[in-house]
Amino acid sequence: MTTTADERIDRPPIADERSTLVGYLEYHRQTLEWKCAGLTPDQLRTRAVRPSTMSLLGLVTHLADVERSWFQRRVAGQDIPPLFYSDADPDGDFEVADTIAVDEAFAVWRRECARSREILERVGSLDETFESRRNEVLSVRWLLIHMIEEYARHNGHADLLRERIDGATGE
């Protein structure tokens, strides 16, 4: 697990579009891991910013489902179910944090990120398209920007949670 901000691979300052977008996405993935580093399982499960029910571990399990949904289910067109949520339990990806083992949650998230990377490597152009669950036609470029936004927004949540849990702050 990444333990310091200095261990993250920085975003490329000068690069082509694909490398820049992927670099930002990786940076935000590593930031999430950094925000969770050094905490106990109970701290990772703490819902520290009431009335929100979010926890750091819940963010990890949620983002595992986000990775799976966008890259495997949408871009690759695989007919696989979500990991933790369902129509009957739409918040299951956050709620599972109460019961899942920390190591398992991170292993699942890392596996889903690795699978997303594999799928992205097979994409020839950022102009390639896929269909969203709302039947919108979206480009892989759109997806990369969306994933950066998704992680950046949740890393902001992670900042607040972490500060409330142990006072740690940082970008």
Q: What is the global morphology?
A: globular
Order of helices and strands: HHHHHEEH
Supply the number of helical segments.
Answer: 6
Strand content: under 5%
Assign a percent range to the helix content.
Answer: 55-70%
Mean pLDDT: 93
CATH architecture: Up-down Bundle
Task: Report low-confidence residues grouped into runs of 5 or more.
Answer: none
Structural topology:
Elements: H1 17-36, H2 41-45, H3 56-75, H4 92-95, H5 102-122, E1 129-131, E2 137-139, H6 140-166
Antiparallel strand pairs: 1-2
Helix pairs in contact: 1-6, 3-5, 3-6
Structure description:
- Helix content is 57%, strand content 4%.
- It has a two-stranded antiparallel ribbon.
- The protein has helices at 17-36, 41-45, 56-75, 92-95, 102-122, 140-166; strands at residues 129-131, 137-139.
- The chain has a single domain (5-166), classed as Up-down Bundle (Four Helix Bundle (Hemerythrin (Met), subunit A)).
- The two termini are 18 Å apart.
- A hairpin with a 5-residue loop joins β1 and β2.
Short description:
This protein is mostly helical and 171 residues long. The protein has helices at residues 17-36, 41-45, 56-75, 92-95, 102-122, 140-166, and strands spanning 129-131, 137-139.
